[in-house]
Amino acid sequence: MQELTERQQLVLQFIQESISERGYPPTLREIGARMGIRSTNGVNDHLRALERKGYLKREDMKSRALRPTVMGQQLTLDDAGEALGDKTPANDDLLEIKVLGRVAAGAPILADEHVLDTVRVDRSMVRGQGEVFGLRVSGDSMIEAGIHTGDILFVRRQNTARRGEIVVALIGDEATCKYYYPESDYIRFQPANKDMAPILVRAVDFRSTMLLGVVVGLYRKI
Q1: Does residue 186 have a pLDDT over 90?
Q2: Could you list the active site residues?
Q3: pLDDT score, position 93
Protein backbone atom coordinates (compact mmCIF):
# COMPACT_ATOMS: atom_id res chain seq x y z
CA MET A 1 0.00 0.00 0.00
CA GLN A 2 1.46 3.36 -1.04
CA GLU A 3 1.90 6.18 1.44
CA LEU A 4 -0.27 9.29 1.25
CA THR A 5 0.76 12.89 0.94
CA GLU A 6 -0.32 15.26 3.71
CA ARG A 7 -3.07 16.74 1.51
CA GLN A 8 -4.39 13.29 0.60
CA GLN A 9 -4.52 12.34 4.29
CA LEU A 10 -6.50 15.48 5.10
CA VAL A 11 -8.99 14.82 2.29
CA LEU A 12 -9.50 11.24 3.46
CA GLN A 13 -9.94 12.32 7.08
CA PHE A 14 -12.53 14.95 6.08
CA ILE A 15 -14.50 12.24 4.27
CA GLN A 16 -14.30 10.02 7.37
CA GLU A 17 -15.44 12.88 9.65
CA SER A 18 -18.45 13.60 7.44
CA ILE A 19 -19.55 9.95 7.32
CA SER A 20 -19.08 9.60 11.10
CA GLU A 21 -20.92 12.81 12.02
CA ARG A 22 -23.59 13.04 9.29
CA GLY A 23 -23.88 9.50 7.97
CA TYR A 24 -22.81 10.40 4.42
CA PRO A 25 -19.68 11.76 2.69
CA PRO A 26 -19.14 15.40 1.69
CA THR A 27 -19.78 16.84 -1.76
CA LEU A 28 -16.91 17.75 -4.06
CA ARG A 29 -17.59 21.42 -3.31
CA GLU A 30 -17.48 20.78 0.44
CA ILE A 31 -14.14 19.01 0.07
CA GLY A 32 -12.86 21.88 -2.05
CA ALA A 33 -13.99 24.47 0.50
CA ARG A 34 -12.38 22.54 3.35
CA MET A 35 -9.09 22.09 1.49
CA GLY A 36 -8.98 25.46 -0.26
CA ILE A 37 -9.25 23.85 -3.70
CA ARG A 38 -11.16 26.03 -6.15
CA SER A 39 -11.99 23.52 -8.87
CA THR A 40 -13.81 20.19 -8.69
CA ASN A 41 -11.14 18.83 -11.05
CA GLY A 42 -8.55 19.52 -8.37
CA VAL A 43 -10.67 17.66 -5.80
CA ASN A 44 -11.09 14.75 -8.20
CA ASP A 45 -7.32 14.54 -8.62
CA HIS A 46 -6.97 13.85 -4.89
CA LEU A 47 -9.86 11.35 -4.92
CA ARG A 48 -8.39 9.46 -7.87
CA ALA A 49 -5.05 9.29 -6.06
CA LEU A 50 -6.76 7.87 -2.95
CA GLU A 51 -8.54 5.28 -5.11
CA ARG A 52 -5.35 4.35 -6.93
CA LYS A 53 -3.49 3.87 -3.64
CA GLY A 54 -6.29 1.71 -2.22
CA TYR A 55 -7.66 4.04 0.50
CA LEU A 56 -10.95 4.95 -1.14
CA LYS A 57 -13.67 3.40 -3.29
CA ARG A 58 -16.21 5.09 -5.55
CA GLU A 59 -19.02 3.15 -7.19
CA ASP A 60 -19.40 6.01 -9.67
CA MET A 61 -18.21 9.59 -10.04
CA LYS A 62 -20.75 10.97 -7.56
CA SER A 63 -19.19 12.20 -4.31
CA ARG A 64 -22.00 10.62 -2.27
CA ALA A 65 -20.63 7.22 -3.31
CA LEU A 66 -17.28 7.83 -1.58
CA ARG A 67 -16.35 5.17 0.95
CA PRO A 68 -12.98 4.70 2.70
CA THR A 69 -11.58 1.17 2.40
CA VAL A 70 -10.48 -0.86 5.43
CA MET A 71 -7.01 0.65 5.09
CA GLY A 72 -8.49 4.13 4.76
CA GLN A 73 -10.54 3.69 7.93
CA GLN A 74 -7.36 3.21 9.97
CA LEU A 75 -6.31 6.82 9.56
CA THR A 76 -7.28 9.15 12.42
CA LEU A 77 -7.05 12.88 12.94
CA ASP A 78 -3.78 12.30 14.79
CA ASP A 79 -2.22 11.16 11.49
CA ALA A 80 -2.66 14.55 9.83
CA GLY A 81 0.60 15.95 8.56
CA GLU A 82 2.58 12.84 9.54
CA ALA A 83 4.07 10.14 7.31
CA LEU A 84 2.30 6.82 7.65
CA GLY A 85 4.25 4.45 9.85
CA ASP A 86 3.05 1.06 11.10
CA LYS A 87 0.31 -0.13 8.77
CA THR A 88 -0.74 -3.14 10.80
CA PRO A 89 -4.56 -3.14 10.70
CA ALA A 90 -6.14 -2.03 13.99
CA ASN A 91 -9.47 -3.42 15.13
CA ASP A 92 -10.98 -0.06 16.04
CA ASP A 93 -14.27 -0.51 14.21
CA LEU A 94 -15.93 -1.79 17.41
CA LEU A 95 -16.87 0.42 20.32
CA GLU A 96 -17.33 -1.01 23.82
CA ILE A 97 -20.11 0.79 25.70
CA LYS A 98 -20.98 0.42 29.38
CA VAL A 99 -24.72 -0.07 29.93
CA LEU A 100 -26.30 1.48 33.01
CA GLY A 101 -29.51 0.38 34.68
CA ARG A 102 -30.19 3.35 36.94
CA VAL A 103 -28.41 6.60 37.68
CA ALA A 104 -28.65 7.99 41.21
CA ALA A 105 -28.24 11.68 42.06
CA GLY A 106 -24.78 12.56 43.32
CA ALA A 107 -23.18 9.35 42.04
CA PRO A 108 -20.65 9.17 39.19
CA ILE A 109 -22.38 8.41 35.89
CA LEU A 110 -20.29 5.31 35.21
CA ALA A 111 -19.92 4.12 38.81
CA ASP A 112 -19.41 0.36 38.92
CA GLU A 113 -22.57 -0.24 40.95
CA HIS A 114 -24.68 1.13 38.10
CA VAL A 115 -23.04 -0.79 35.23
CA LEU A 116 -25.21 -3.74 34.23
CA ASP A 117 -23.39 -4.90 31.15
CA THR A 118 -21.25 -3.85 28.24
CA VAL A 119 -22.06 -4.09 24.55
CA ARG A 120 -19.72 -3.96 21.59
CA VAL A 121 -21.14 -2.28 18.51
CA ASP A 122 -19.88 -1.00 15.20
CA ARG A 123 -18.86 2.65 15.49
CA SER A 124 -21.19 3.49 12.61
CA MET A 125 -24.14 2.87 14.97
CA VAL A 126 -23.13 5.85 17.10
CA ARG A 127 -23.17 9.37 15.68
CA GLY A 128 -20.49 11.92 16.48
CA GLN A 129 -17.53 11.86 18.81
CA GLY A 130 -16.98 11.85 22.57
CA GLU A 131 -17.61 9.56 25.53
CA VAL A 132 -20.67 7.35 25.08
CA PHE A 133 -22.53 5.28 27.65
CA GLY A 134 -25.56 3.03 27.36
CA LEU A 135 -28.80 3.27 29.33
CA ARG A 136 -31.42 0.54 29.41
CA VAL A 137 -34.91 1.93 28.81
CA SER A 138 -37.72 1.31 31.26
CA GLY A 139 -41.19 2.66 30.56
CA ASP A 140 -43.13 3.87 27.54
CA SER A 141 -42.74 7.65 27.69
CA MET A 142 -40.89 7.73 24.32
CA ILE A 143 -42.77 5.03 22.39
CA GLU A 144 -43.89 7.46 19.67
CA ALA A 145 -40.21 8.15 18.98
CA GLY A 146 -39.62 4.40 18.54
CA ILE A 147 -37.97 3.94 21.94
CA HIS A 148 -39.33 1.00 23.93
CA THR A 149 -38.76 -0.80 27.23
CA GLY A 150 -35.67 -3.00 27.04
CA ASP A 151 -33.95 -0.90 24.36
CA ILE A 152 -30.45 0.34 25.05
CA LEU A 153 -29.89 4.02 24.32
CA PHE A 154 -26.44 5.20 23.31
CA VAL A 155 -25.87 8.54 25.01
CA ARG A 156 -23.03 10.95 24.28
CA ARG A 157 -22.04 12.42 27.62
CA GLN A 158 -22.43 16.22 27.64
CA ASN A 159 -24.28 18.88 29.63
CA THR A 160 -25.53 20.94 26.70
CA ALA A 161 -28.16 20.14 24.08
CA ARG A 162 -29.95 21.81 21.19
CA ARG A 163 -33.65 22.49 21.33
CA GLY A 164 -35.65 19.44 20.22
CA GLU A 165 -32.88 16.89 20.79
CA ILE A 166 -33.60 13.69 22.72
CA VAL A 167 -31.66 13.86 25.97
CA VAL A 168 -31.14 11.86 29.12
CA ALA A 169 -31.60 14.08 32.17
CA LEU A 170 -31.25 13.46 35.87
CA ILE A 171 -34.42 14.72 37.53
CA GLY A 172 -34.57 13.92 41.22
CA ASP A 173 -32.67 10.68 41.54
CA GLU A 174 -33.82 9.08 38.30
CA ALA A 175 -32.53 9.33 34.76
CA THR A 176 -35.26 10.09 32.25
CA CYS A 177 -35.25 10.20 28.45
CA LYS A 178 -37.22 13.06 26.90
CA TYR A 179 -37.17 15.72 24.20
CA TYR A 180 -35.40 18.87 25.42
CA TYR A 181 -37.17 22.23 25.05
CA PRO A 182 -35.76 25.24 26.94
CA GLU A 183 -38.43 27.94 27.34
CA SER A 184 -38.18 31.42 28.85
CA ASP A 185 -39.17 30.48 32.41
CA TYR A 186 -38.69 26.73 32.49
CA ILE A 187 -37.16 23.71 30.78
CA ARG A 188 -39.73 21.39 29.23
CA PHE A 189 -38.81 17.71 29.05
CA GLN A 190 -41.37 16.43 26.57
CA PRO A 191 -42.34 12.75 26.33
CA ALA A 192 -43.17 11.10 23.00
CA ASN A 193 -46.42 9.69 24.32
CA LYS A 194 -49.69 11.56 23.87
CA ASP A 195 -51.00 10.17 27.15
CA MET A 196 -48.18 11.64 29.23
CA ALA A 197 -47.59 15.20 30.40
CA PRO A 198 -44.21 16.93 30.08
CA ILE A 199 -41.86 17.40 33.02
CA LEU A 200 -41.32 21.10 33.72
CA VAL A 201 -38.25 22.34 35.57
CA ARG A 202 -38.15 26.01 36.50
CA ALA A 203 -35.30 27.86 34.82
CA VAL A 204 -34.03 29.09 38.20
CA ASP A 205 -33.84 25.49 39.44
CA PHE A 206 -32.23 24.03 36.34
CA ARG A 207 -28.53 23.15 36.40
CA SER A 208 -26.52 22.04 33.40
CA THR A 209 -25.35 19.02 35.42
CA MET A 210 -28.92 17.70 35.16
CA LEU A 211 -28.23 16.92 31.50
CA LEU A 212 -26.36 13.63 31.31
CA GLY A 213 -26.12 13.57 27.54
CA VAL A 214 -27.72 13.49 24.12
CA VAL A 215 -29.09 10.28 22.60
CA VAL A 216 -27.01 9.35 19.55
CA GLY A 217 -28.12 5.79 18.86
CA LEU A 218 -30.27 2.85 19.90
CA TYR A 219 -29.66 -0.88 20.25
CA ARG A 220 -32.45 -3.46 20.31
CA LYS A 221 -32.38 -7.24 20.49
CA ILE A 222 -35.06 -9.04 18.47
Answers
A1: yes
A2: 141, 178
A3: 67
Task: For the chain, give the mean pLDDT.
Answer: 78
Q: For residue 62, what pLDDT is reported? A: 47
What is the pLDDT averaged over residues 176-183?
Answer: 93
- Whether the CB-CB separation of 129 and 214 falls below 8 Å is answered with no
Q: Judging by beta carbons within 10 Å of its beta carbon (0-12, 13-18, 19+), is residue 183 exposed, middle or buried?
A: exposed
Report in angstroms the alpha-carbon separations of 69 from 1, 12, 15, 52, 89. 12, 10, 12, 12, 12
Q: What is the pLDDT of residue 128?
A: 66
131, 95 in Cβ contact below 8 A?
A: no
* Fold (topology level) of 94-219: Umud Fragment, subunit A (2.10.109)
The answer to whether the CB of 174 falls within 8 A of the CB of 189 is no
- In the chain, where the domains are located: 6-76, 94-219
- Ranking 45-59, 158-172, 184-198 by mean pLDDT, the lowest is 45-59
Query: Fold for domain 6-76?
Result: Arc Repressor Mutant, subunit A (1.10.10)
Q: Cβ distance 41 to 32 under 8 Å?
A: no
Please give the pLDDT value at position 106: 58
